[in-house]
Amino acid sequence: KMADDTSVDILQKVLENEILQSTKVVEEHLDAEIQKLDQMDEDELERLKQRRLEALRKSQQQKQEWLSKGHGEYREIPSERDFFQEVKESKNVVCHFYRDTTFRCQIMDKHLTVLAKKHIETKFLKLNAEKSPFLCERLRIKVIPTLALIKDGKTQDYIVGFTDLGNTDDFTTETLEWRLGCADVINYSGNLMEPPFQSQKKYGTSFTKLDKKTIRGKIYDSDSDDD
């Protein structure tokens, strides 16, 4: 019994010593950091300040450049010709091919308006599919709404209908933001491995990959397409 007590005491002392040591290491590290700051002369502090100001200035400059190119708001472009010009001058572009009579396009509009303000690093556009037959043919757009996701002038990905968004008209702006993040067309800070709609039991937990339709040359609504 006494031997047991002794071994417990020894263990406790060892443990306390470990805790003291690690606390000491943390404190020493903090002391070293504080000392480093204390020892910095005026010039070094000034250089540090200048570097931070320069980084801030560059980020402001970049923001202004984006805004001057029409980022920061969700807007309609009048023609196919405008599409090529807009895409040429921005690295990341999301273009919504819509039709006035398609109810789901209005749902998409609502979410894109919010995201355009939040993600000024990306240009958000809309283009009437009926006024852009050449582009729709070239980009093989069959279902309305379709989002073309463009990086460096090349269409990298599509969001066709609401299949990728939980297959519901009630998808959240966060769900669309996540899907754009998956395509790397916006700076996404969430976890790409967890689609927001998967946490909502209502929409089920299976993520269905996009089911592309192959009806040639005909644009049709996802409204009337309830898979």
Automatic annotation (TrEMBL):
It holds the Pfam family Thioredoxin. The keyword Repressor does not apply. GO terms for cellular component: centrosome; cytoplasm; midbody; nucleus. Keywords: Cytoplasm, Cytoskeleton, Nucleus, Phosphoprotein. The keyword Nucleus applies. InterPro entries: Thioredoxin-like_sf, Thioredoxin_domain. It is found in: Cytoplasm, Cytoskeleton, Microtubule organizing center, Centrosome; Midbody; Nucleus. Residues 80-163 form the Thioredoxin domain. Significantly diminishes the chaperonin TCP1 complex ATPase activity, thus negatively impacts protein folding, including that of actin or tubulin. Forms ternary complexes with the chaperonin TCP1 complex, spanning the cylindrical chaperonin cavity and contacting at least 2 subunits. This is Thioredoxin domain-containing protein 9. It comes from Edolisoma coerulescens.
